[in-house]
Design goal:
alpha/beta, two-stranded antiparallel ribbon
Length: 323
């Protein structure tokens, strides 16, 4: 017991000594102080930061006090048992997170180099294109890049920017071009909005469905802010779009609900399975509603080579489909 306590004290003393920067030129912050500051911000408390960094709470408190002393301003306000970040701390945290993302990228690169030339590709995609388009493109990509690890995630339109800004995405495929200063969108092609319904649906006998016909029959809607919700509002009108009895948040769910007779599903062609479920039919909509297929990337750094090759595969799939 005594030996363990002595060892812990020695570790704490070493931890605090590194924060003091003995023998180093005096500077406002060193890496140990930045590490402690970030741990407190992430954990929300001194005790939580201690658990994250495997040192005692007093050691964290000493480093925090030293850091605030050197900076000349408070990083946290003490409110009972909570630490509330000051505005200065919140601004500083944004820069610190950028530093940690850079370190993570360096570590990822080091791991990839250790794998003798293998790499990784991180793709984010809207659910509509995650059913066929992106899997087909990734299949083509993987055939020529067998050693590349692929991380593919379905994300909502609102999540796209965050994935890139946190360094968790190399390239994205989206129905809408996001409006963000740090993102750029490149058109890859177009899709079409269609209507999926059971074969015994009242509208199934019509080869092309008019807007009036759609309005007069139960159909499955989407939230107004979602890309599909915006498309449906543009087609049927905002008032009609808001009157849908069933609201879903994914075209996959809309298709499943349509199979159960809950209404007609308005989806894009690329979200349909290669073979329609038994008893289901697809009908065109008049007027035609084109839907964009956009490549999304960050404009803060060049597009990675693997992402460029993936987009080439997407282009080949689209060309084959249109051919």
């Amino acid at each position: 017991m005594g030996s363990g306590s002595g060892s812990r004290r020695a570790e704490d003393e070493s931890f605090v000594s590194q924060a003091e920067g003995a023998g180093e030129p005096r500077s406002p912050l060193n890496l140990r102080q930045i590490e402690v500051f970030r741990a407190i911000m992430v954990a929300g408390s001194v005790s939580g930061a201690g658990r994250m960094l495997h040192v005692s709470q007093p050691a964290i408190s000493r480093v925090l006090a030293l850091t605030e002393s050197r900076l000349g301003f408070k990083l946290f306000e003490r409110q009972r048992t909570r630490l509330v970040p000051t505005p200065e701390a919140q601004r500083l945290f944004g820069e610190v997170e950028g530093l940690y993302r850079g370190i993570r990228r360096v570590n990822d690169l080091a791991v990839n180099l250790a794998r003798s030339g293998t790499g990784s590709l991180r793709v984010v995609t809207s659910a509509s294109y995650a059913q066929r388009l992106v899997p087909l493109a990734l299949q083509r990509f993987a055939q020529s890049h067998p050693n590349v690890q692929i991380d593919c995630r379905n994300v909502t339109y609102d999540e796209v920017a965050a994935r890139f800004l946190t360094g968790d995405a190399d390239v994205g495929i989206s129905m809408l071009a996001p409006v963000h200063a740090n993102l750029q969108a490149t058109p890859l092609g177009q899709d079409q909005l269609v209507c999926l319904m059971p074969g015994d649906h009242p509208l199934a006998g019509q080869p092309v469905l008019s807007v009036d016909a759609l309005r007069s029959s139960p159909w499955i809607g989407y939230p107004p802010g979602a890309p599909l919700g915006q498309l449906v509002s543009g087609l049927l009108g905002a008032e009609a779009a808001a009157s849908a009895q069933v609201i879903v948040h994914s075209p996959v769910t809309a298709i499943a609900f349509a199979q159960q007779g809950l209404g007609a599903a308005l989806v894009v062609r690329w979200s349909l399975p290669p073979t329609l479920p038994p008893g289901m039919v697809v009908r065109a909509i008049e007027p035609a509603t084109p839907v964009g297929i956009w490549a999304i990337s960050s404009n803060l750094a060049p597009l990675p080579v693997l992402a460029t090759r993936f987009l080439a595969a997407v282009g080949q799939i689209l060309q084959a489909e249109n051919g």
